[in-house]
Amino acid sequence: MSAPRAASPVLDRLRIGSAPDSWGVWFPDDARQVPWQRFLDEVAEAGYAWIELGPYGYLPTDPAALRAETDRRDLKVSAGTVFTSLHHGPSVWDATWTHVREVATLTRAMGAGHLVVIPSFWRDDKTAEIIEPPELTVEQWKHLTTGMERLGKRVRDEFGLDIVVHPHADTHLDTEEHVARFLDVTDSDLVNLCLDTGHYAYCGGDSVKLIRTYGERIGYLHLKQVDPDVLADVVAKGTPFGPAVQQGVMCEPPLGVPALSPVLEAAQELDVDLFAIVEQDMYPCPPDRPFPIAQRTRRFLRSCGA
Fold this sequence. Notes:
two-stranded antiparallel ribbon; TIM Barrel; single chain; eight-stranded parallel beta barrel; alpha/beta; globular
């Protein structure tokens, strides 16, 4: 007789959601993306209660209109997202704040509490052309860290939102070394981390180790996996992130790495409420592909206790 199967832990501190990214949405307006109405219909039908806004302008930007759409599908918004180039210093502040204020206004109006902040790519996000050096100078690191602290303070003071900075492939905040350097010199009262398990693995990091080492700085999770075989090819050839996504480097769980159960359990042990938002990069993709993946992923996460 086989031993009884151990029950999955109850991951009751994690609030599971998904995002437009899981439907192949990278841009506010793109003919290769599904219409926003279809995204909202399918994310709700797949069993998710929480969503992110995605690229600003993809979903309706009028709060009343968007709330009507989310309410009738029993959806709630967990965060908005902004891209920043704060490593360029004070010269970009005004333009940065204009964009952040726009997104933060909608985020707050939708009752969300977080703003996911992604550093700008050092490659062009459509052509993959290298547009600046992949390593920052000492001065640029100082601009990045102090700029994020300034942003965190102003966003909190004016909107009551917490910023969570998202390490991301093909940005200056990517590897374990860069993430540790960033966290070690930034104020935890102003800046915390959105740990994206897929991007961190893509860049060679260990998500469980990061949670165990910097647990008090983990303010938000993106759940994602990478295909190790595709990743090995990407690393060997130096393939840019966009083409790597088209190769299928990001895959649905539980087919890739990191294993998500240990990540979720480590996050639960922090004993704080955390959003855990599914994102599977697959721009561009056929319009009928995302929904069944979203359903399977939600079932898988339930089997993990989430």
